[in-house]
Amino acid sequence: METQVLFVAPFEKLHKIAVQVVEEKFAAKKGRIRVIKGDLGESMPVVRQAVEDGIEVVVSRGGTAKLIAENVQVPVIPVRISIMDVIRMLSVHKDVYEKIGIAGFKNVIYGSEEIGKILGIELVEIPLQGEEEALQKLAAAKADGVQYIVGDSISVKIAKRLGLPGELIDSGREAIFTALKEAMLIAKIRREEQERSAMLRKVIDQSADGIVATDAAGQITMMNAQAEKIFKVSHFDALGKTIGQVFPVLQMASTKEDNGYFDDFHEIDQKTFTVKHSLLRIKEETIGELFNLQNVSRLQKIERSVRKKLHQKGLVAKQHMTDIVGKSAGCMEMKRKAAKYALTESTILITGASGTGKEVLVQSIHNASTRAEGPFVAVNCAALPENLLESELFGYEDGAFTGARRGGRQGLFELAHGGTLFLDEIGEMPMNLQSRLLRVLQEKEVMRLGGDSVVPVDVRIISATNRNLAQMVEQRLFREDLYYRLNILRIQMPTLAERAVDIPLLARSLMRSMQEVNPHIAGIEPEAADYLRSRAWPGNIRQLSNVIERAMLLSEGPQLTREDFLASIESSEEPVRMEKEQNGDGRDASIWPMASLAELEQEAMERILREEHFNYSRTAARLGIHRTTLWRRMHRAKQGK
User: Fold this and answer.
1) CATH of the domain spanning 597-638
2) Average pLDDT, the chain
3) pLDDT confidence of residue 308
4) What residues does each domain of the chain span?
5) Are 438 and 486 in contact (CB under 8 A)?
6) Which candidate, 486, 470, 398, places its Cα nearest to that of 434?
7) CB atoms within 10 A of CB 640
8) What is the pLDDT, as a whole number, of residue 254?
9) Residue 87 has what pLDDT?
């Protein structure tokens, strides 16, 4: 574990004793304690850097401890003079001097006069706040009959200038051990509080609800990311201000009820939210208020979704042919083919570069087909590891593997019965699953994992890829017989560069769909539209969409200008071409950097691990692998192997 406690010794002897105490009393934890030597201001740069590096507590003595406490925001524990330190010093001089002064910063000498009474000598405390007043106070003590000074280094040095003999009181091992023990306890408590605070902060930030909290004075102390989105106000602009200054609607909610809880509806940015208000109390004392905001439309959407999933599992396609924007020859030919193919039952293969809108076209085909009332099921073959993809596609029986859900589970083929199954990135499907898929296409039936009977399925398959499957067949990376089964009907998606005439239409359509990003934007200037049409757009519609959104965010309006797009298109957006290959129709197709299967597998494992709240046993069960195998794969991925 990293260093937690910094010990600053103002003089050499204290430094040596502190190092010895750490070695003897904190041997098992000495890596958490750092000891340095430095008096007053000379130690401050090191202390400040240590605090930035995460030091939890600082330990020092006298004026150095006082100076550090005034300049840093972490606890500072002073090393006090112990009874034994004073007794050791006075026992040497009690028979020589009648009146002895003990001088130093109050955090060092407090309570020393009582020791003088025990030893039968007159012991006078001379508390100092700083070096500047030491001369005056020590001169006054001399005039009052003090004959000898014991104390810290500053006091002894000034006393000698006044002609008073003196001696430095060392802090003994007991005092140093006591201070370090207290510092370690405080460091432990601070670290635990930070961990709890970080966990709470994470929970709050991941909440789908907007959350705002105030202190007893009504000043905003916390707001999560969702609240920032709801109010379109950064927490940097809100923290420290009152609710009334930043969120008047929340102040209205807080004044409606005084029994500690209230729930009401409010309009915020033309959206309806339910606002829950409650008081934060410790015992009977109110220490603040908490506001929780939920989007009513979102709640209604979730409720509708739950009802749908209970009855139909929500397997629907949302896009229609009318949603495909474009009048170019390439776009019209694509839509003409899609409309014609939709009326058949044959399998369709959609090819084209990433970002050309393949899934929109597939959903449109489903909704234009005789299967429109049936389910639409989509699966990305590259996003799941092989064993999980197999169980997702074909389902499994009760007890098929460790962690299998009781009663088994339907696969996507069964869920898509009577409808369409969309296999995206089909070129990434493992070879052994390709053979199972081919059998389903031939026999129109599936067998679940661990099952011994077949289930008839009536499913129309539409697949899509940005890979050259014909070339993959030649390289023995894709089954030839499956390729011909999938490639009965084919649609090549035109790139955005091939349908440049559609770019202004697409841009305006995207703007309408993103109106909430910046409601003040009403259109695109002709010069800006010409500029968009002149670009290559290697990322196709997806890249265009990103640029439109960024321009709308940055623009002052009322229309997007060429300058808005120049500011929105960064040089880093242009991907580097990896290689070229021939599409099935003979044209060159650019191959852009893609995530490897290992990366996709890691992404899927991490997603499921999060869903299972980092429970490796449940995650391994869902993946159909042993817990040790899961750990090994995750570890290997982290090591970059």
Assistant:
1) 1.10.10
2) 81
3) 52
4) 5-79+175-189, 83-170, 213-298, 321-492, 497-591, 597-638
5) no
6) 486
7) 5
8) 65
9) 76
Nearest to 110 by CA among 81, 88, 79: 81
Say whether pLDDT at 233 is over 90. Answer: no
CATH 3.40.50.10660 fits 83-170, yes or no: yes
Same fold, 83-170 and 321-492: yes
Q: How far is it, in rounded angstroms, from Cα 376 to Cα 381?
A: 16
State the pLDDT at residue 266: 78
CA distance 386 to 597: 10
Mean pLDDT of the region 293-305? 70
For residue range 170-199, what is the model confidence (pLDDT) as tens digits? 777 888 999 999 999 998 898 888 888 888
* 451 vs 413: CA distance, rounded Å: 15
Q: Do you find a cis peptide bond into 127, omega within 30 degrees of 0? A: no
Q: What is the mean pLDDT of residues 256-269?
A: 63
Which range, 149-158, 213-222, 297-306, is most confident?
213-222
Task: Say how far apart CA 43 and CA 40 lie, in whole Å.
Answer: 6
Instruction: Look up residue 623 and give its amino acid.
Output: L
Which two structure tokens, joined as six digits, stand for 549?
Answer: 């959104």
CATH class of 5-79+175-189: alpha beta
At residue 137, does pLDDT exceed 50?
yes
Q: Which CATH number fits domain 321-492: 3.40.50.1010, 3.40.50.300, 3.20.20.70, 1.10.8.60?
A: 3.40.50.300
What crossing angle do the helices spanning 386-394 and 431-443 adopt, rounded to 10°?
10
Which pTM was predicted?
0.44
Q: Which of the listed CATH numbers 3.90.25.10, 1.10.8.60, 3.40.350.10, 3.30.70.1790 matches domain 497-591?
A: 1.10.8.60
SS3 for 68-110, per residue? HHHHCCCCEEECCCCHHHHHHHHHHHCCCCCEEEEEEEHHHHC
φ/ψ bin of 62: left (φ > 0), alpha (ψ from -120 to 50), beta (otherwise): left
The string of DSSP letters for 343-403 reads: TS-S-EEEE--TTS-HHHHHHHHHHHSTTTTS-EEEEETTSS-HHHHHHHHH-B-TTSSTT
Per-residue exposure over 454-479, b if at least 16 CB sit within 10 Å of its own CB, e if not:
ebebebbbbbbbbbbbbbbbeeeebb
**Could you count the other beta carbons within 10 Å of the beta carbon of residue 158?**
22
Beta-carbon-side half-sphere exposure of residue 201 (alpha carbons within 13 Å): 8
Residue type, 515: Q
DSSP secondary-structure letter at 456? E
Cα–Cα distance for residue pair 103/89, rounded to 1 Å: 13
Structure tokens at 512: 């309408």
